[in-house]
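Title: Request for sanity check on Permease prediction

Description:
We are preparing a figure and want to confirm that the structure record we downloaded matches what your pipeline produces today. Could someone re-run it with the sequence below and paste the raw C-alpha cells into this thread? We only need the C-alpha cell string, no images.
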Amino acid sequence: MFDWLYILIKRLVEDVFGLSLETGIGDSVHFFFYDTIKIIILLSFMIFTISYIRSFFSPEKTKEYISRFNGISKNIMASLLGIVTPFCSCSSVPLFIGFVEGGIPLGVTFSFLITSPIVNEAAFAILWASFGWKVAVLYVAMGVVLGVAGGIIIDKMKLEKYVEEYVYEMQMNKPDAEELTFNDRISFAKSNTLEIVGRVWKYVLAGIAIGALIHGWAPEAALVKYAGPGNPLAVFAATVIAVPLYSNALGTIPIAEALLMKGVGLGTAMAFMMATTALSFPEMVLLRKVIKPRLIANFVVITSIGIVIIGYMFNGIAHLVV
C-alpha cells in the first residue's frame, strides 16, 4: 500500500541527505520519516472512521445495548462495543459505576474494560501500518477473545463483594438521548480526529524515534537470542516487564515494529503492547476508586495470563501472518 512512500523517502534520504540505506544512520533516518508519514495517514483515516461510528454509541446507549443480551452473548457484545467505543482510561470509573448501577454483571463490565483500551482505532491504524492488515485484524480478534474470556472468569469467581459498597448505591444521571444529524456526526469525527492526533503525536514520534534507533543500531544477534521466538521465556518476560509501565500503546507499536525487524518474536512484541495498554498503572489507580485491591489483583493476573497465551499463539503462527 505504501510502496510509493517507501521509494519517495528512500530518494529523500539518498539524494537530499546523501545517506546510504546500507548504513546505520541512513537506515534509521529512512525508518523515522517513512513510519511517521505512514502512521499519521492511517491514524487520521481510522480515527475519523471510527469516530463517526462512535457518534452512535454514547455511554448511556452502550449500557442499554449490553443490557439486551444474556449469558455469554452479553460478554461478547460488551467486548465488541469496546472496539467502537474506545473510551480512554479516564472514562473507566464513570463507565464502571454506570454499568454496575444499571445492573450489568461484573464480569460483563470487565469484558468491556479489558477490550476497550486494547482495541481502538489508533492502535489498529498503527498496527496495520507497521505489521499489515492480517496482524491488525488478528490483534483485534484476540483482544475481543481476551475480553470475553477474562470477563467470564471474573464472573465465575463471584468477586462482586470486592466492589466498593458506595458504587451499588449511586444513581447515575440519565441524560436525554441526543439525535445527531449526518453533518453533526461528520463534525464530531473531524474534531475528534484533530483532538486525538493532536494529543498522541508526541507519543508516536517518540516511539518511532526509539524504533529508528533500534532499527539502525540494535545488535540483531543479541535480540534474537534473548527475545526471539526460540526463547520460551521471552513472551512471559515481556508481559511481566510491561505490566507496571506507564506507556502509551501508540508509542510502543513502532518500537515493536523495529524489534520485529531485528528478529524479536511477533508474539513477544504483541504481548508487550497488550500488557502496556490493558494494564497501565494510571488505569489501576482510577479503578481503585471503585474496586478493592483483591479484585484489581485478580483482574491483573487473569489478563496477564491471557496476554501470555496470546503471545505464544502469535509466535506459533507468525509465519502465516507476517
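Thanks, this matches our download. The two ends are 15 Å apart (CA to CA).
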